[in-house]
Amino acid sequence: MTKQQRINLIYKTNIKTVVLQSLLTFPMVFCLVGLIQSDSWNGWYVAGVLVCLLLLGGIFFKANRLETELTEQEEAKTMIVRRNGFVFALFVLFLLSFALTLKLGWTYAWILGVAVGVIYVGYRLIRKQDERLMNIDPEHPMLREIRLDNVRD
Description:
Number of strands: 0
Radius of gyration: 18 Å
Mean pLDDT: 88
Shape: elongated
Order of helices and strands: HHHH
Strand content: under 5%
Largest sheet: none
Distance between the termini: 14 Å
Structural class: mainly alpha
Helix content: over 70%
């Protein structure tokens, strides 16, 4: 499969999952806002956030599995899994650090600062993994290449 065909397939799959991700984001935001506004750590809100994160993780896992099926090299598959895992972990880290900062108050804004630093380092790691993946499997698209202006039908 050529690089262009892979970009088309991955992009079209991502578009299909965006609706489901959006539908899961609304209840998760509702639960996060409820958790932030409550005086204690309400178990229902925590459970709602965890369930939404698990479902979003399942969506990421499904997209990850599709992307790993496009290459035959085991080392490339490992790099894809690691890269996509980092993307999801950084999403969760930012979301939870922002919610924790709002819950504890802005005097704990250093939590958000540390999270932004970790996210920047994670972004750099993801870029390095993309470069290594390009060396292993030149036909596999980099994460930044999977966007609408690169899709050709």
